Every structure is written in C-alpha cells, then in structure tokens.
Amino acid sequence: MRTIQKVKSYKASSKEVFDCIDDLGVTGMHMTESSMPMMGGKMHLEFLTPQKTGLHTKYRWTGKMLWWPLDFTVEVTRWISGREKTWETIGPTQLVIYSWFQMNLMVEQGSKESIASLSISYERPQKVINKILCFLFGDWYCRWCLKNMLKDTETKLLSRQSDKDEEFKILSKDHLHSLKEKQPLFYYATSNENQDYAGCSWDAESGFSSGQIGYYKFTAQIEGRKADC
User: Fold this and answer.
1) 2-165: which CATH topology?
2) Which residues are 103's β-sheet partners?
3) CA of 43: how far to CAs of 29, 201, 223, in Å?
C-alpha cells in the first residue's frame, strides 16, 4: 500500500473547512468534468444512502476512462464532525490504476487559520497492463486529485467569504447616516435571526441589531426608523 498526502491552510474555521471538503458537490467536481487526467472521461455520482454526509454514507461512481469502464462504491468508515473523515472503496471495483483506495481527512484549528491534511492510500491492481499504468501514473493521479480537492475548497471558502463581506459592506459612516430615515437597515444586520457574525447580532424580540463592522459602531432599529452610529 502506498500513501500520498497534501496539507493546506485556510483562513476559515475548522468546521467550515471540514464541511466544505466533506461536500462532494465541492470536492467531487473534478471527477464529473471531462479533463486530460481523466483521459477525456467523466464520472457520475449516485448516493446509495438517504444521507449525503456522516458515518456509513455510501455512494457509487460510474463512468469511463478511454475504453475502460469505471464502477466503484465508496463508504465513509470514520466521521467526526469538523475534525476527521475516512472513506474507502468497498466490494467489487472497476478501476484502472488502483485495485482499492482509501482517503483520509484531518482538520486542525490553529490560532489564525485551519490546517487540512488530506491523503490517498492505494493498492496496486493485479493485471499487468494496469500495474504498468499504476507505476506510471498512480502517484501523479493522487496528487492531481488532492490538489483539485484542496483548491476547490479554497475557491468555495473565498466565494462564501466574499458573499458575506458584500452583505455587510458599509461604504462610509456618512452613508450609514444617510439611511436613517430612508430604508430598513436589515442589510447591516445578520441575515439569520439570532445568529452572530462579524461582531454583529440580531435580537428577534427587541428588533434591534448592534455591534461593530470595520471601524463603525452602530445600533440599528429594524424597519428603518432610526439608526445611531
């Protein structure tokens, strides 16, 4: 068995990083698109369990690489929310350069960023032609998969952060003052009731939001009548 590992840091919480890598809609995208490493082929994903995340989640990948059919089932064998995940192929598999593989994710929270360690362990196939392909491309393909999964995670996290920054953007203190009598200031509070974000909080009962965004402190009454900042 051989193991290839990559480590990457993210300016996000360990839970955000874990949830993003755990989401096959993010980290499985490179498998569903035609590419040179896939030799022009692409895969189709089918979940075999009602849940799409968590322990014992199962899903099946099918597709083709050149003239080789691909068909294998994966099961999550270890899952600790926000921290660790292990998934591997089970049962009969139709693979080209591996006979079996297992992936492992570990996410640790640092003082300013989170560190994700992602690895692939694999066993070589039995047929001679497949052994040769594994010798030539096995490690390279692992590195390509790991690189894409970690890069797609970074892209998704940056996109989410950009959306949040835009939602809570204040152009200037004068701009906020000008909104006192013009329109509701819900835009400057969190979009989900009773959820804290970026030093801001929304109290559903009192109808007030207060906190600090950037350099500007504010208290805004929802429904847009008054704003102090």
Assistant:
1) Alpha-D-Glucose-1,6-Bisphosphate; Chain A, domain 4 (3.30.530)
2) 87, 120
3) 9, 43, 49
The structure tokens 């949040």 sit at: 164
Which sequence spans correspond to the domains of the chain?
2-165, 168-228
Distance, in Å, from the CA atom of 214 to the CA atom of 200, rounded to the nearest integer, reads 11
**Contact between residue 224 and residue 208 where contact means Cβ atoms under 8 Å apart:** no
Backbone angle region of 199, left / alpha / beta, with phi > 0 → left and psi within -120 to 50 → alpha? left
Given CA atoms 87, 116, 157, 81 in this order, what sign does their dihedral have? positive
Alpha carbon 188 to chain centroid, angstroms: 27
* AA letter at 79: W
Between the alpha carbon of residue 154 and those of residues 75, 146, 173, 183, the distances in Å are 25, 12, 32, 36
- Cα 222 from Cα 188, distance rounded (Å): 10
pLDDT of residue 199: 42
Query: What tokens appear for 113 in the block?
Result: 């960023």
Burial of 110 (0-12, 13-18, 19+ CB in 10 A): exposed
pLDDT, mean of each 10-residue run, the chain (229 residues): 95 93 84 65 88 95 85 96 96 93 95 93 94 93 93 88 52 46 41 39 42 40 39
Q: How many residues does the chain have?
A: 229
Helix (H), strand (E) at residue 141: helix 128-167
